[in-house]
Amino acid sequence: MAANESLAGQEQSAATFPCAGCGGEMQFDTVSQTLKCRYCGNEQQIAAGQGEAVHEYVLDFSDETDAALLDWGTEQQVVKCGSCGGEMLLPVGQTALVCAFCGSAKVLPQGNPGSIRPESVIPFRISKEQANQAFNAWRRKRWFVPNAFKAQSVNSNLNGVYVPFWTFDTNTASAYRAEVGVYHYRNETRTRTVNGKTETYTERVRYTVWHWTDGRHDRFFNDVLIPASGQYDSALLQKMNDFKLEQLAAYKPEYLSGFIAERYSVPLKQGWDAARSRVDDTLNGEIRRKIGGDELRNLSIDTRYYDRSYKHILLPIWNANYRYKEKSYRYMVNGETGSVTGRVPKSAWKITLFVLFWVLVVGAIVFAVVQNTPDTTPASEAYGATIGSGL
Fold this sequence. Notes:
By secondary structure, the chain is of the alpha+beta class. It contains six helices and 15 strands.
């Protein structure tokens, strides 16, 4: 269950949480949600974590240099992968031989972390065995994977990693101004030539009436979630969006025992810029719907952000790399809910058959439409041609 099992059996020179019974190393247990001794099975409750108030911090970009906010509760060291550049946080004295992100053995110590400590965490609730089961069930439901891949077992390097995220809260006050277009209709009299004769007809014509409008739109945004990791396929990480943030527990270093924490690589300022962009997109859509009308042009929005706050949080993800026919693939399992996202090999012949099937279906539909279309007489063709030239 512990991510340390992936470190090629490296002997640990320091145990962060020794067992009171036998002195062995205690690690966080996903089933009991306690610290559990990996040798004698002794359990120890984690005090005042779950249910303790989670604090928001006033957004101040200088916090990343505030020593008071850099204490993780246990002395940490940074180890950096020489292949993918991933930075992991491990207790001092513990050395990793395998990168939790790419599986590379080129992992080197880097010294003090110098990162804002997490404010809160969602502890792992899905065990390593459950994560494996979830992935196997998920991959067997993929349509376009090779049958051989579905049938065989997958040897993957599965690591429990606490992935860093920022959450941002902000009140917004937006002043907007725009031109609104509203459709109106009128009947117009026109003429056309049919079989050499001029005839008059009435046509309903649409036109747009434009007018200026302005107003104010107030909105509070809570827990805008921004990944602070630089080691994951961003598309996969964005799909991992079913965390229950209301279950956040106040950070305790005990939750990290037996797992790896990734050091955030997206600075606080960059995280806020990403959150503000997402907020702006949401405001743009809401204001457009609020204004209404049939068309909109020259929209300007001036937004003021105030009461801004943030949290640095850790969310549990089982991360894995595996190989199939000399190619490397990655998948992730939500350590709280068990949902899976990832990349799998594709079967060329299955995709080809799927495309051919839909080509045949579309061809059959087109053929049926053509067959059921009545033939037009020369007179009707002439009539249609005359109308077209008259318009």
